[in-house]
Amino acid sequence: MGSTSGENENNGTAGVGRRDLIRRSVALGLISVPTMSFLSACASGGGSDDNSSGNDQGKTSKSNPFGAKKGTKLDVVIFKGGYGDDYAKAWEADFAKDPGITSTHTGTQEITGKLQPRFNAGNPPDIVDDSGAQQIKVDVLYKNGQLLDLAPVLDAPSVDDPGKKVRDMLIPGTLDPGIQEGKVVALNYIYTVWGLWYSGKLFKDKGWEPPKTWDDFIKVCQAAKKDGIGGLAHQGKYPYYINVAIMDMIAKKGGLDAVKAIDNLDPKAFVGSDAAQAGVEAIYEVVEKGLLMPGTNGLTHTESQTRWNQYKAAFITCGSWLENEQLKQTPADFDMKFLPMPLLPGSKMPFEAIRAGSGEPFIIPAKAKNLPGAKEFMRHMLSKEWSTLFAKEANSLTILKDGVDASVKLRPGTQSTVEASKAAGDNTFRYLYPDWYSEMDTAIQNASNELMAKRIQPKEWLKRCQAAVDKQAKDPASKKNRHE
Predict the structure, then answer these.
(1) What is the per-residue burial (b if ≥16 Cβ within 10 Å, else e) of 291-312?
(2) Beta partners for residue 8, in sequence order
(3) Distance of CA 241 to the CA centre of its chain
(4) What is the distance between the alpha carbons of residues 157 and 242, in angstroms, rounded to a whole number?
(5) Please, what's the largest Cα pairwise distance for the chain?
(6) Which of 33, 44, 204, 417 is deepest in the core (most CB within 10 A)?
(7) 205 burial via Cβ count (<10 Å: 0-12, 13-18, 19+)
């Protein structure tokens, strides 16, 4: 799987030259993501400003603000999902040259299994890509005081322009998901979009038009069913994915107010929300009318996605790591395409609106042995050179403005997300509750799992989700988070 969840990308477009495609890719750095307030910093609570580093502390300078010491070692753990881990190996090779720090590299999908015992023993790695289905939840690590406050990294001089801070080089709003009680404790590194995906080849062969309205979406699913093809596939064992569809429908129907109501634990976030009711009823229509890909409820993310690659479903929900995750399973002429969620009648957002922002959280444990090296490594991650290395190896874009060299050629699915992001402009949104409240997020996912299996109806789904909101609202710590 790719970035957040289970946790984990033809050549071109008719009439558009390769140079134009590259220009558009680079232009993504100009996209403005709605910025949430950075919240007032809280003096108490998790996270750590511990800068002790023992023998790994070297001399500081303008080019080495943290005193990263040549000859020391860095313990790097990378979630090996949709983006692989070759990009990190390329980073580590460069870091071994300058500043001369070698790395112990671990690429794995078993983040919790491998790292929880190390955190418990006070012996964590130096830097971690904490993602995947077995992610250690960032809010839990923060509450336990196990994460470093990343402000020193973000306020350090940029590698590319020492006259500017690192944070000034980032796409607006992309730091927000990593905030806990006013502190940035996770760096969500990858610029991600979420929505529907389809095969350009299948749609061309069948004469289907990509739908912009929900009615037209249902019609395509019904046409697919007549041809023995599933309408919508989802990664049933990981209900995070179907929540991409449900929550996006709610956002587009009710606008940013509906998003903020959920993030801010409103007593009418779900029960009493017309947008929430309309969104969940729309997705349930697919279930009721038998338009799901057969068996999809019992499949893992890769199983479901592979069947979709085999033309067994018209649509699937996912984030923009999908193309890279499915490279080996995707036919050469599949022509992967991204599609924003279609609109319900009376929606407050336009069709072009998409969920977009940063994903794939990187953390520095508070008790990392080589803190100077870890902070310098993260500072380098936010350089154009390392951002370009990532794009080359992982077929994706980072949160760095203009962060990809023009020589990088993106694959068709990823290129279609670039086009969608440009079309969306400022019409982007992002839920923060999954980052702030993992227990509430899990409860909503569980309700969606029951819904897709027809074990509960939309009315019960709304009740269960509201109960999860109400429970979270009773936690005094929740008052320190606010989506403005």
Answers:
(1) bbbeebbebebbbbbbbbbebb
(2) none
(3) 11
(4) 41
(5) 70
(6) 417
(7) exposed
For residue 76 the two structure tokens come to: 């790097």
On the question of a cis peptide bond just before residue 345, with omega within 30 degrees of 0, the verdict is no
pLDDT tens sequence across 35-45:
333 222 332 34
- Contact assessment for residue 241 and residue 296, using Cβ atoms and an 8 Å cutoff: no
Q: Which residues 6+ apart lie within 8 Å of 479 measured at CB?
A: none
Please provide residue 127's backbone torsions phi and psi, each rounded to the nearest 5 degrees: -150, 140
Cβ neighbours of residue 264 under 8 Å, at least 6 residues apart? 482, 483
pLDDT at position 33? 35
Handedness of CA 82, 424, 214, 441 (dihedral sign): positive
* Residues 6 or more apart whose Cβ sits within 8 Å of residue 223: 206, 208
Q: How far is CA 59 from CA 55, 62, 63, 175, in A?
A: 12, 10, 11, 29
- pLDDT tens-digit map of 51-86: 444 457 889 998 999 999 999 999 999 999 889 999
| E runs forming strands in 67-136 | 73-79, 102-108, 127-129
Q: CA-CA distance, 437 to 374, in Å (whole number)? A: 27
CB 83 within 8 A of CB 132: no
Q: Are 463 and 450 in contact (CB under 8 A)?
A: no
Least confident of 197-211, 339-353, 413-427: 413-427
